Every structure is written in C-alpha cells, then in structure tokens.
Known about the structure:
Elements: E1 2-3, E2 20-21, E3 25-26, E4 28-29, H1 51-54, H2 69-80, E5 84-85, E6 89-93, E7 100-104, E8 113-118, E9 123-126, H3 137-142, H4 146-156, H5 158-167, H6 190-212, H7 221-234, E10 235-239, H8 246-253, H9 274-283, E11 296-300, E12 308-309, E13 316-320, E14 325-329, E15 341-342, H10 349-356, E16 369-371, H11 382-390, E17 395-397, H12 409-426, H13 432-438, H14 442-465
Parallel strand pairs: 12-15
Antiparallel strand pairs: 1-2, 3-13, 4-10, 5-8, 6-7, 8-14, 9-11, 10-11, 13-14, 16-17
Helix pairs in contact: 2-5, 4-7, 11-12, 12-14, 13-14
The protein binds S-adenosylmethionine.
Amino acid sequence: xxxxxxxxxxxxxxxxxxxxxxxxxxxxxxxxxxxxxxxxxHRLCSQRVHxxxxxxRRIPQRAEGxxxxxxxxxxxxxxxxxxxxxxxxDILPDSEGxxxxxxxxxxxxxxxxxxxxxxxxxxSVTMDDSKPSGALEGWWMRHPRSSIxxxxxxxxxxxxxxxxxxxxxxxxxxxxxxxxxxxDLKFLPQRLADSALARKKxxxxxxxxxxxEGLSAMIPRDLFLRAHHAAASRAFSGEGEVPASRSAALAxxxxxxxxxxxxxxxxxxxxxxxxxAGAAVVAATSVVVATSPSPxxxxxxxxxxxxxxxxxxxxDLQFDPTSRIWELRATRSYKPGEEIVFSYGDKDSDALxxxxxxxxxxxxxxxxxxTIPEVGTCGLSAEVKAEMEKAGIQELCFDGxxxxxxxxxxxxxxxxxxxxxxxxxxxxxxDDEKVAKEVSSTGIGRVLLRWxxxxxxxxxxxxxxxxxxxxx
Length: 472
Ligand SMILES: C[S@@+](CC[C@H](N)C(=O)[O-])C[C@H]1O[C@@H](n2cnc3c(N)ncnc32)[C@H](O)[C@@H]1O
C-alpha cells in the first residue's frame, strides 16, 4: 500500500481521496505532441536547449493586450472537468512560438502535486480483445493500431473534448515525418523514411475507411490527423481501468460542462489483441511500468500532456484505481521561471523525430544506429558484406556492443568504416542549406537540420572511437 505522506499534500489539494491510496500504478509516457500557438513575444520553453533549464529565468510577461483565448477556454474546460492544476504553474508559448509549455511561477517543492485529473477527463483505449459498441465498431476491428483508435476515439468525443482538441497543434505545425510530403522523405535514411511512410499509409487507409462507412462527418480528416499526432506523441500508457461507458464516466467524474452528444455515446472502446503489437510500434522505445492484471490502457491526459520533453527523469505520474484519479508530481524543486519538463522515455533523435516531430539538442539518450551499405559503397567489399549477412547483421548500433558481434575484427572494422562514411556523406553540413531550401516548409527544414546536426555529432563521436576518417 502506498500512502502519500501528509507533507506532500499541497494546500490547494482537495481533501478527499488523497491520503489513502491503496494501490498506485506507475505509468510512463508513451509518447507525446502538441498545440496551436499564440502570441509569440514571451517565450522560454523547451526547444532552446538545456541551459535554459539551469538558470532561473524571469517569467516572461504576456504581450500587452494579448490573451491566449484557446488556453483560457482550455482552463475553463479543465475547471469544469474537475482537473486541478497547481496555482504555481502557467501555460505559456514555447520558444518557437508554435507550441506551449508549462512554467513554474512560484517556488515548487519536489513531490508537490502539479496536476490531478479524474479518469473521466481522460480519453482512453484499452488493449484487450473487446470491441466498442456504436458507429465505430466495424472500423475498429480493421484498424488495430492503438494510436489510430485513440485518435478516432478522441475526435468522436469532440463535443466533450473540444477545448482540449483546440490546444493540439494544427497540421501545419506538426513536423513528424508521417505528415511530410513524400518527396521530403528522401532526406531521411531509408529505415526512417519507410517507417514514416508505413504510418502515413495506415492513416490514409484508416480515414478512407471512415469515409466509406459514412463516418467522416463525425471524424473529419484534419481532426483525425491532429488527434493521431496527439495519440502517437502525447499519450500515456500504463495499467488501469477505463470507465465502461461515457455515461459511467460522467457519473463518476462529473464532466458537467460536456454535452452528451451522439459522438460521446461511442464510449470508451477496447481493442483486440493485435493492438498490443500496434501499441508496441507506437511505444517503440518507451517503458511501461505497471503491475495491475487489468488491461493495458493508452490514455490522453489533458494538462499532464502540456509538459514538454527533456531527456532525464521520467514523470512521476500515477493512477490511483480506487479514487480513479491520475496525479502528476514534481520530480524535483523548481524556481519561478523554470520550465517543468520530464522525459518521454529514453528516445534517440530518430525516435523523437518519427514519433513526435522534434529533435532534442545534445540528447543524452541519443544513439547511432546505421544500416550497413551496399557492396561497393564507401569501400565495402562483397566478402565483408557476405560475412555480415551470414551473421544476420544488417545494422550497426553504436551502443558499445559492436565488439561482441560474431564476425572477425578486420571485417567489423571495414563494415564500421564503410557504414560511418556513407552516413556522413548523407548529412554533410555543406548540404544543409540546399536541403532546407528543397523541403516543403521552413518548419520541416528546421527539424531536419537539427536532426542532421545531431547525427553529425554522433558520427563524429563514433568515428573518433573507431578511429575512422569520415571523409577520406
Ligand atoms: C506532450 S506535448 C507537450 C506540450 C506541447 N508543447 C503543446 O504545446 O501542446 C508533446 C509535443 O510537444 C512538442 N515538444 C515536447 N518537447 C519538446 C522539445 N523538447 N522540443 C521541441 N518540441 C517539443 C512536440 O511537438 C511534442 O510532440
């Protein structure tokens, strides 16, 4: 039994249900994504590197006369949905002026509750073999990817979750490669391009099926894609129960503001066993820490998902199955002006790009994973390629384990050298300008250049370790 020490219960916390917590399930972020932007002059969050975190910056003042109306509606919606947020937090535009971030406004102690959210104010899909009832039932069984199901689930409930959906990034500010025009994918290594294309096709197919079933008015394409970015990049996974139906959720959670429209009647849906594989694809590098025998759940947690990523500590996010409340706590103390961040999991640049559409500078979890090139490319001989293939090695992962591969030392050396040189050719700094000009938008260009820059750092480090001259 886990009992919250009274000292950790902040003054603003409601007095009920928080001292006795019979069983708390720790969950971890599967992924994450983001929101429409607002006034851009006061910015301080995420994208601008770790330095920002260390200094205690002044909280930026909002531009004169500018109100973030989308945020205000979201705050009203949260109040009506019984989501409580610490009064020591604010949501502000991020450093790019496109998304938002959560900033500390008064001294915060480690362990203080930041957000408390009833399960009824989350959107969830379970990953067992049950089906939803209602209009989505047939479609559901043909689309087992849980992120796709969660997207449909959210949009189908948009009468209830409108202000939350409004906070999500608009399509032209989502830079995940599955939304790039196909011609831009040529700037990525084949492995990443293939993965982005597979997701793009799965989404196109999923929405075509919705249209075929006459459901595209209920789930319009642009909202579906935005919601998918949310599901793929800001959903949390863990164990726990979801309400058996939306009406049960209303009864339990009291989402008084929410109109019980036809879409909301779809309820909380479940997924078949294949969805577990789908979720694993989405989850790729994340960890799920949970012990309950109940089904896995993939959930969108409004407000908790306003927090941006920084490699390091994961969130202290727990679900209490008795009170059915999610709770996010501070993993350290914060000073006014500091951005609240947590790690979405140990994700390298490739995973962050594919899943979220951003790349962290100097990512401590970064990892170089490269496909071995074709014979004759960058000096790779047919013999060495054959030896690698015989050993079942198609990729080299520079995580310290290469020397354990069961191939001869000279062959490994040749493969490493050719692989590093080919990868270096594909992301030469001198080509950056051309690449940025050729891609379809400045946003994609910005993310792609960051990805190339981080890749060059990894390549240089690997070349140093393996004593490879990258450019000869
Ligand atoms: C859980 S949301 C965080 C809140 C989000 N910034 C918003 O405005 O709604 C995750 C998304 O925010 C953005 N994001 C999070 N951390 C970031 C970072 N360190 N740098 C750039 N973008 C980040 C990415 O688009 C990501 O998919």
